[in-house]
Amino acid sequence: MYIPQKQLENLKQMIIPGKVMVIYGARRVGKTTLLNKFLEDKKFSDVLFVNGDDIAARQYLESQSINKLKDFVGGHRYLVIDEAQYVKHIGLNLKLIVDHIPEIQVIATGSSSFDLAKDIGEPLTGRKMVLQMLPLSQMELSQIEKRHETEANLESRIIYGSYPEIVMIADNKRRQDYLKEIVSSYLFKDILMFEGIQHSDKLLRLLQLLAFQIGKEISLMEIGKQLGMSKNTVERYIDLLEKVFVVFRRGGFSRNLRKEITKNQRCFFYDNGIRNALINNFNPINLRNDIGELWENYIQCERLKYHEYLRQYTRSYFWRTYDKKKLIWLKS
């Protein structure tokens, strides 16, 4: 069953010749499904769909030769590059394509933003549009379920998250196996491949520490002491985890009043199921002592998806004072 994706509407509205449409998102959140749905009513001969890990395709896409790129694209109207972060100099080559083949419409997807964003940043200044894919939102799920079904499924969403395949799986054991497979096979793949991090065990321990502290203010210094790492290394690792769409941070809001706490940040996971898989806790809510934290993480994610999919670009914060007054979500 296909669940209508909100970003499909945005993609159809935003894609134009002369611009590169960049779609970011974690592995398995539905980027390829989105592309296939977008292309399903296009003529087969109009579409050139390639994968960034295809060696033959990379020989052209890394060439920086206008003639080779024109030969590769041919007479196609759409060029789609899935997992474009594997292509060296992708930004410069896409710039050559949109500059010299102005009628073509280009889509590039990436499961990590640090390498792809670095490559496309300067070359595609003024030549790109960006969408972010996230696990399924309640906005999307409401299109296929009634209110009583949403209420019945809420505990499952809080425990197992809302990756597309998770939503389709009815058996909890299979859900757990699926989430553990994502954690073991996909979660660190881009970081370890592109950043050359040697201590994957410390990266896992960092994620587990963050998983136990969702919704709480984190101290990079304290985390570093627990892991035997410097504060700067902890900051770098969390930054990388943000760029592969595992976690995101919220800073404190300030009106420059002395009683407000602003220096610390809070860290959240893009998906509750991934968080629970990291600490291997899939207990039902009546057997948990972290239901408040899970609920806050779920709300943070849903608000993030809501603003992203409606193209509402806001800054989000938490707010707390020294006398314990607080708001978990504040936007400006």
TrEMBL record:
Q: Report the protein name in the record.
A: ATPase AAA
- Gene3D superfamilies named in the record: P-loop containing nucleotide triphosphate hydrolases
What is one Pfam family matched by this protein?
A: DUF4143
PANTHER family reported for this sequence:
AAA+ ATPASE DOMAIN-CONTAINING PROTEIN, CONSERVED PROTEIN
**Highest taxon listed in the record's lineage:** Bacteria
Q: Which residues form the AAA+ ATPase domain?
A: 17-140
